[in-house]
Amino acid sequence: MNQAINVEQLNSALSSLRTVRSNVSLVFETLSNGLRADHGEDGKDKFLMELQELLYIVSNNLRDLEQTVNALPIPVPFNLGNTTYLSQETTQDRQALYTQLVNSYKWTDKIHEYSSFAQTLLSQNSLKRSYINSGSTKRRGKLQSNHNVAPLQVDNVINNIDRSYNDMKITISRPFASNAVVSINLSHVLKAVVAFKGLLMEWVMVKGYGETLDLWTESRHHVFRKVTESAHAAMLHFYSPTLPELAVRSFMTWLHSYVNLFSDPCKKCGCHLHHTSLLPPAWRDFRTLEPFHDECKQ
Amino acid sequence: MKRGKATIICEVKNGSYSQYPVPENKTGTYVIELLTKRILALGASQQGQFLVDCESYLSHPQMGTTKTVHILHNSEQPASVFSILESGTKNIHVIADGLFDLLMMKLSQHYTSKKQTKIESKGPRFELGDFCVKLGSVTMNQNFKGILVEVEYRPCVMANAVWGLLREFLQGLLGPTVPVQPTQHLMSRMNEIYTPIDTIYQYLEHFSAYRKVTGMRNN
Amino acid sequence: MSAANLAPITATDSLSQALKANIIPNQEYLLQGSVLDSAVEVLLHRLRGLCDNVDAGTETFDDQEVCFSLRDPNQQAAPLMLRVRKALDARDMPFQLRYIGQPDLGDKSRPTVVRSSLDIACSGMLIEFLNELGCRIEFEYSVKGYMFRKGRMKITVSKVFKISQSSMSPEPISQSYLVELSVLAPQGQDAIGEDMRAFADQLRPLVQLDKIDYKRLGHMS
Questions:
Q1: What pLDDT, in 10s, does the model give residues A192-201?
Q2: Assembly and partners (chain B) (predicted)?
């Protein structure tokens, strides 16, 4: 709407400019022609009169022009950077650059548009693992610091968990700068190693009692490879950037339930071994902590 | 000390195999073949053969109360010699390297081998997931004595925790009517960490039982 | 059937094969000597210059040895001697059970003492086992010192201590160090004796390594 008005104003301003130009040229034409035959005997006075008239028209036109130009909104000057000089480009093949410039501008514009759509969609469908649903900016600032917690605080959290179990020994080491790598000995059943980033769990590896523990090599036993899989699922399930301490504690409680990995049968089929995989129940329900075979858990 | 994995050894008695009529004179091979077929059907793969042998030495009568030294070898631990000294009610074991056999030769004045009771369990060895199953036919002095099935569950080191699971596996393999009982030695070590010597003790207990049964079973 | 599924050979078979091939190191070639405490540093310095295993500093050991005897039931032969060594500085290492036969000095031309020997690594209840087997403890001592290696030769420079009953520091048996040069080899490799003699000659100004006849020592005391 605004733009349409502007164009009309601009048009009238341009037409009044044209009128000024044509009338001015008329003045000069009359002047250059000088006295003509039709001016008659006292042509001198007549000529001066005609000239005065013409000048009067020009000054009127000029006033009109000034009026329309003043009515135009004064454009804020764009900072076009080097593109400003494109208008002064004389070489033929470089003049095409302007179209490309306009195209890329259109693309950027679209991206901007789509991302704003995406933003609206994301805020409507909250995803668990994103920060978006976590509310005010003030809180968000605090959240991000969970990646970067003082080692002492991490130690406190983990040591507290360690103290609450008699049959689960948790030890902290820091082989990679300030991030904790926690090794867990669960009775004589299994060993696990958890890599932390701040207070957030990043990686879990579960192995047998007699095996050597490291972050990357898988256990040689099928059952512990299965438990590692479950532990990864649990790590993602319990992931909660707003309450990292709760996440760690829930994960440890869940892991502790593996103390009966070999001795308790599956809650659903009642057997120790699943008939096809020949594995013991290597899955623990997240809430009830009951043992299930991977195949029986649905 | 080297850690092991929970293992049970179960004797297959022909009596409990009533639903599978065993032809005359083919006892051992027939049952082994039958069990081999079953375990292959479960998806196992054969990984070589195994051998556990036992030779017993008796002390010289001049040395006072008779003592027995059992020398056992297990192909799972090929560089070791397991030696168990039976003295009254006590059993004392030593795990040594291969040269211990030479020492026993040096002791031949003091301890003499009862060659006719040399006994061994030998047969195919299968791997099935985390299980290792060994089907051994027991022979003493070339005479067939019976069949011992050894099931090892490698991830677990405590017999107590894994007992139910092992029994379920064995009964699945041998049939639900087969009684699966821990040996006396295993009973006393249920809550300890299992080591290779525990397997040896289990074999010794079964071997001693076979030796007591004189003569060969004819079924 | 694939090769992997062949029946394993019995331990007895593999042992008799090893015996036939004569690959079991059951002979010990031995030279012994001693140096005074005051002279030991010079000897150690010389050995550090001559031996192989000195890159990471001198290897030390601290062992306790118990010597058992098993009497012959027919009272005819000499008692059988068995020695048990336990490393006090590496407690998780297995025991070393050692059978040593009668030393054979031979004539003057033989460069070293040769005695039959079996070194067996053992774990488990070894002391109890030997007691129940019928062995009697003869004596025990602790030995602490340095171990060097030069090719197949082993050189130990060690001090023998009495086992102290209380928690007091053990008392040394003498004011000198025992120096032993030994090689374990299968039967019939007598050439090694010459190598040992040559090496002993290199140490000659500092320590005299010789064939020691214990029977004669026994007579002297």
A1: 999 998 888 8
A2: Component of the Mediator complex.
| Burial label, A253 (beta-carbon count in 10 A; 0-12, 13-18, 19+) | middle
Q: Looking at the domain assignment, is residue B179 inside a domain?
A: yes
Q: Which chains touch A (3 or more CB pairs under 8 A)?
A: B
Read off the pLDDT of residues C184-218 as tens digits, 9 standing for 90 and up.
999 888 889 999 999 999 998 899 998 887 777 66
A225 touches chain B (CB under 8 A): no
Domains of chain C and CATH, by start: 25-212 (2.40.320.10)
B39 with B66, same domain: the answer is no
Query: Is there a contact between C121 and B93 if contact means CB atoms under 8 Å apart?
Result: no
B68 and B102 belong to one structural domain: yes
Nearest CA to B135 among B146, B202, B197?
B146
**Is the per-residue pLDDT at B47 higher than 70?**
yes
For chain A, domain boundaries = 2-71, 146-296
Report the CATH number that the domain containing residue B10 is assigned in CATH.
3.30.310
Q: Quick: pLDDT tens for C116-131.
A: 999 999 998 899 999 9
DSSP label at A281?
-
The pLDDT-based confidence of B45 (bands split at 50, 70, 90) is: very high
Same domain, B162 and B112: no
Whole-number pLDDT of residue C20:
87
pLDDT score for B18: 29
- Residue of chain B minimizing CA distance to C78: B109
Min distance A216 CA to chain B CA atoms (Å): 19
Using a CB–CB cutoff of 8 Å, tell me whether B162 touches chain A.
yes
Enter the DSSP assignment of A78. Answer: P
Element spanning A145, H or E: none
Could you tell me if A197 and A191 are in contact, meaning their C-beta atoms sit under 8 angstroms apart?
Answer: no
Of B43, B153, B164, the CB nearest to A263: B164
d(CA A29, CA B108): 146
Read off the pLDDT of each residue in A176-184 and give the average, rounded to a whole number.
Answer: 86
Residues B41 and B72 reside in one and the same domain = no
How far from each other are the two terminal CA atoms of chain A, in whole angstroms? 60
CB contact under 8 A, A188 and B130: no
Instruction: Note whether A272 contacts B: Cβ–Cβ < 8 A.
Output: yes
ipTM over 0.95? The verdict is no
Instruction: Verify B-A touch: 3 or more CB pairs within 8 A.
Output: yes
For A280, which of B160, B163, B165 is closest by C-beta distance? B165
Q: Do residues A220 and A199 lie in contact, with contact meaning Cβ atoms separated by under 8 Å?
A: no
Query: Which of B62, B92, B98 faces C73 most closely, judged by CB atoms?
Result: B62
Closest CA in chain C for residue B111: C133
> Which of B117, B145, B161 corresponds to the end of one domain?
B117
Domain identity same for B174 and B150: yes
Which of C16, C122, C131 to mutate to probe the B interface, most B CBs <10 Å? C122
B219 occurs within a structural domain: no
Report CA C74 to chain centroid distance, whole Å.
29
